[in-house]
Design a protein that fits this description.
It is a multi-pass membrane protein. This is Lipoprotein-releasing protein LolC. With 423 residues, the chain is α+β, with helices and mostly antiparallel strands. It folds into two domains: 210 residues, no CATH class; 182 residues, no CATH class. Helices cover 56% and strands 16% of the residues. It contains 14 helices and nine strands. The chain has a six-stranded mixed beta barrel with strand order 2-3-7-4-6-5, surrounded by five helices. A hairpin with a 2-residue loop joins strand 2 and strand 3. The longest helix is centred in the N-terminal third of the chain and has 46 residues. The chain starts with a helix and ends with a helix.
């Protein structure tokens, strides 16, 4: 005979429910409903956690792959920025450094106007701290320094707002600061420069709506010798960027240096992703718990239906422990099957949810995520096997805990009373 005996009997009960008349059919239906709820709950939690992992990955690898971990500035006009860059790059916590100008400007093409952040870059050094070269062609970098017709690289969102294409012209307008040039009437003159669109990049992030690239010399001219020059930095540890930045500022010999790190620009987004992951994970875990504890109702009905069988087993010498394990085994089977099938369904969903949503967007002609509202313009997903193991294990464990109460009730059935009631 199959050993151990309690497991054998429990598995027979689980497989024989449909053959036990009306009560057996009802028990089978409730048991199936519990299993379906557990499958959907486990699958949904795996998909949700994978999507949150995807947003976290896109923040680190795309948004902060293009933008630096920190930037150090100084408004003094006589700073030797290449020397400052080399000094900062020598620090062991700094992976790379590149000089940059950052200017807030308005882009105008015809009657269309759009605000944007203009970065004046050195193409030879910017690729050390940014992966923007993944989205911009080498020819576009070369066109930025064209003295006859300087180029500009725009994000896709800006280009759509201005309705411009590669090869077309636009103007950049930079408001003058208080120390800038004045018109005859004493008003401060805005600086204006024309550019030809060298390339349009599509990173799939919010940067498509705000970032533009020009050459270092063009940005310097637009800034009019004012503030905005600095050094962009990429660190070994992204989460320690603030502490590393403070230490670097103290080590610089000259006065007037100040800086910002990614937490001041994208820290709220990072915290929102982490909070959303925790809250959504908690809600879905409650769904799994509800589905798992439906096993209680299933086993309670089984215990009621099997009173006579329990009494006979007790009179044949079955111990309280064996009766307990019999019904725990039955509930564990429901939990195991539900958790495993839910895990498989969740893995399939996590691996295909990005393509499914993209296909649905294409079919309906609607874009659910837009980079001017959300961090990215598509639904990312990153499956982590540790999450799968955690969710499947939690689903099975909750199902197992749910079996304890009805199993204890079954182990307390008195043989004489149960057989008397069956007469």
């Amino acid at each position: 005979m199959f050993k151990p005996l309690p497991v054998f009997i429990g598995l027979r009960y689980a497989g024989a429910q449909r053959r036990n008349g009306d009560t057996g059919g009802l028990v089978s239906f409730i048991s199936g409903l519990s299993m379906v709820g557990l499958i959907l709950g486990v699958a949904l939690m795996i998909v949700v956690m994978s999507v949150m992992n995807g947003f976290d990955r896109e923040l680190r690898e795309r948004i902060l792959g293009i933008m630096p971990h920190a930037t150090i500035y100084n408004s003094a006009p006589d700073i030797d920025w290449p020397a400052v860059r080399d000094q900062l790059a020598a620090d062991p916590e700094v992976v790379a450094a590149a000089e940059v100008w950052q200017i807030n400007a308005l882009a105008r093409q015809g009657s269309a106007v759009a605000p944007l952040l203009v970065q004046g870059i050195n193409p030879d050094t910017i690729v050390r701290v940014s992966n923007i070269d993944r989205f911009v062609t080498p020819a576009a970098f070369n066109a930025l320094a064209d003295s006859a017709e300087p180029g500009i690289v725009l994000g896709k969102g800006i280009a759509e707002k201005l309705d411009v294409r590669v090869g077309e012209h636009l103007s950049l307008i930079v408001p003058s600061n208080a120390d800038g040039e004045q018109e005859a009437g004493g008003r401060h003159a805005a600086r204006l420069a024309g550019f030809v669109v060298a390339d349009i990049f599509h990173s799939g992030t919010e940067l498509d709506q705000s970032l533009a690239l020009v050459s270092w010399d063009q940005a310097s001219a637009l800034a009019g010798g004012g503030s905005g020059a600095g050094v962009q930095l990429r660190f070994q540890e992204m989460l320690a960027a603030n502490w590393t930045l403070r230490r670097l500022l103290k080590d610089l010999p000259a006065q007037g240096f100040y800086g910002t790190d990614w937490s001041s620009t994208h820290g709220n987004l990072y915290q929102a992703i982490q909070m959303s992951r925790n809250l959504v994970g908690l809600l879905v875990l409650l769904i799994i718990a509800i589905a798992a504890f439906n096993v209680v109702s299933t086993l309670v009905m089984v215990v009621i239906d099997k009173h006579a069988d329990i009494a006979i087993l007790r009179t044949m010498g079955a111990s309280t422990r064996e009766i307990l394990l019999t019904f725990v085994s039955q509930g564990a089977l429901v939990g195991l099957v539900g958790a495993l099938f839910g895990g498989l369904l969740g893995i399939m969903g996590a691996l295909t949810v990005t393509d499914l949503v993209a296909g649905l967007e294409s079919l309906l002609g609607i874009q659910f995520l837009k980079s001017d509202v959300y961090p990215v313009d598509y639904l990312p997903s990153e499956l982590q096997w540790g999450d799968v193991a955690l969710v499947v294990g939690a689903g099975f464990l909750l199902s197992l805990l749910a079996t304890l109460y009805p199993a204890l009730q079954a182990s307390r059935v008195q043989p004489a009373a149960a057989l008397r009631n069956e007469q």
